[in-house]
Amino acid sequence: MIWRDYLQLTKPKVVLLMLITSLVGMQLATPTFIPLSILFFGLIGIGLAAACAAVLNHIVDQHKDKLMLRTQKRPIPQARISQKEAIIFAIVLGLASMLILMVYVNWMTALLSLLSLIGYAFFYTVILKRLTPQNIVIGGLAGAMPPLLGWSAVTGEINAHALLLVLIIFIWTPPHFWSLAIHRVDDYAKAKIPMLPVTHGIEFTRLCILLYTVLLLPITLLPYLVGMSGLFYLLGILLLDAVFIGYAALLKWRPQPLSAIKTFHFSNIYLCLLFALLLIDHFLPRGVL
Questions:
Q1: How confident is the model at residue 289, as a pLDDT?
Q2: Are the beta carbons of 142 and 17 closer than 8 angstroms?
């Protein structure tokens, strides 16, 4: 059915992950519950902006998508949706997002969402993805914005604690995507996309994944160290970091055929659980843990 193709253009799993981190950013911004209007319109507006960026990514990458086994069955390469239809869809999503955020949330969230959209759809997809193996490192900033968007939806401000959440996702992004890139290295090479395992080799990429997961340890401790979260979060994140580093260490020193994709899948679980820990800890009375 055609609606399924349009839904696929929006990358719903990615949008859902962004909405989860946005929701936690909203809740951490206030000691009480989120106002229902901000919760509803904020998530709708942020989600539509993320969906718009995803559709634009499909449009820009359509020719390379035809060359890659992972993406060649997407709606545009398969001509189930035309480029013109996809462009109109992206425009509708983008305009709806900006209108909802400007009218029902605040101008700061609308501006930050627009910058995030441009960063992902233009600077990452059009320029960085084709220019440098550090594409996902630099371009990852756009994908790390959702917690800040959620925070600003509630407060209308850019807060240091919200930027800390952005930093966590920013450092998490390279090992997340490089794990997938190792698993799909032949695809990226065929499409001439300079992902790190294509330009510097799989062994070097494994080392970088391990180093980034180790770097995540002190970064993810910062919410506890600055008083943003408590002991519950600290204990949970230490366990999560140990498991993530374990996956990366096995990928580096004892790689198996599916090690990279298993690391990729765990990285998704890791981020969801990290933000769940932050959310639960936020509601725990201090002194309980």
A1: 62
A2: no
